[in-house]
Amino acid sequence: MSRARRSDGDITKSKILEAAGQLIAQNGFAQTTNKEIAKLAEVDLAAINYHFDGRDGLYRAVLAEAHTHYINEQQLLALVDSPLPPTQKLETFFATLASKLVEKDVWHSKVFIRELFSPTSHLQAFMQSDGARKFQAVRKIISQVSELDENHPALLPCVLSVVAP
C-alpha cells in the first residue's frame, strides 16, 4: 500500500525551492550552499536530499520552477487545444508572458538568465525535457497562426522570434 502524500512535506519542499531560487538568483548556483538554502528555508539540511535527491536535483527543480513561472506547461497545452482563433491564442500567450515579465522582485528571471549566460548541463537537460515540450506547444500555435505545417522549415525562425529572449 502506498503512503499518502503529506501536506507538510509539500510545504517543506516549496520552502526549499523558494529559498534556493532566491539565493541562486542572488549568488549563482556554484556560490550557494545547501546549508544556506536550508537555513533560509528553515528546514533541516537533510530535507534537500529527501525532496530533491541532492543538490543537482534541487537546481533542476529551481530551473523548472523559474521557467514555469513564465510559461506554465498545463496552461500552454490548454491554450493550444482551446477553441480560440489562432491569433487570439498567440495574443493570450504574449499577454500572459508579458504580465509575468513586468513583475518586480522575483527571482525566476535572474536564475534563468544566469543559466543562459553561463550554461551548465542542467540547461541542456531542461531543454530536452520541459523546454522541448513547451517549444512544441508554441510551435503548434505559430503553425496555426501562419497556416504552415508544423514541420515546415520556415516555421522554426518564426518560433524562435517568438520565444527567444
Tag the structure with descriptive keywords.
single chain, 165 residues, mainly alpha, Arc Repressor Mutant, subunit A, 2 domains, 9 helices, 74% helix, 0% strand, elongated, HTH_TetR, transcription regulation, DNA-binding
Describe this structure in words.
With 165 residues, the chain is mainly α. The chain has two domains: 7-66, Arc Repressor Mutant, subunit A (Orthogonal Bundle), CATH 1.10.10; 71-163, no CATH class. Helices cover 74% and strands 0% of the residues. It contains nine helices and no strands. It has helices at residues 7-27, 34-41, 46-52, 55-70, 73-81, 86-101, 108-117, 121-146, 155-163. The termini are far apart. The mean pLDDT is 91.
Could you state the order of secondary-structure elements as H and E?
Answer: HHHHHHHHH
Largest sheet: none
**Coarse structural class:** mainly alpha
Q: Calculate the terminal CA-CA distance, rounded to whole Å.
A: 46 Å
How many separate structural domains? 2
Estimate the global geometry from the Cα principal axes. Answer: elongated
Helix segment count?
9
> What percentage of amino acids are in beta strands?
under 5%
Give the % helix.
over 70%
Question: Uncertain segments of ≥5 residues (pLDDT<50)?
Answer: none
How many E strands? Answer: 0
> Overall mean pLDDT score?
91
Q: What is the CA-based Rg, rounded? A: 18 Å
